[in-house]
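sry for the spam today, last one i promise. struct tokens for design, 104 residues
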């Protein structure tokens, strides 16, 4: 497989992943971003652990979808993430979840 073939394959996988995101985004109420992944979820709990400079975050999500092109099953009943990096959680209004007409 040439590097051009591999690049074409990855581009097609990314487009398929975006299309899947577009199809499922309306099912979820939260967007969660960590340093490694992007999630959609219906329930999110962030707990700060540790003390002083040794602080980390424990993020628990219910009914989640994971943005990962190499993951064979992107839907998960429960996800737990432990990270020392920033975590961004947003609750989206239903109107924000709708894709504009004439999109991809």
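last one done:
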């Amino acid at each position: 497989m040439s590097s051009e073939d591999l690049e074409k394959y990855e581009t097609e996988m990314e487009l398929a992943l975006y299309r899947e995101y577009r199809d499922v985004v309306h099912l979820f109420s939260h967007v969660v971003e960590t340093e490694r992944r992007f999630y959609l979820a219906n329930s999110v709990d962030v707990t700060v652990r540790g003390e002083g400079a040794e602080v980390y975050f424990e993020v628990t999500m219910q009914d989640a979808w994971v943005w990962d092109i190499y993951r064979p099953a992107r839907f998960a009943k429960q996800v737990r993430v432990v990270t020392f990096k920033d975590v961004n959680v947003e609750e989206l209004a239903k109107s924000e979840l709708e894709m504009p007409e004439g999109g991809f």
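Residues 3-91 form one domain. ok im logging off now
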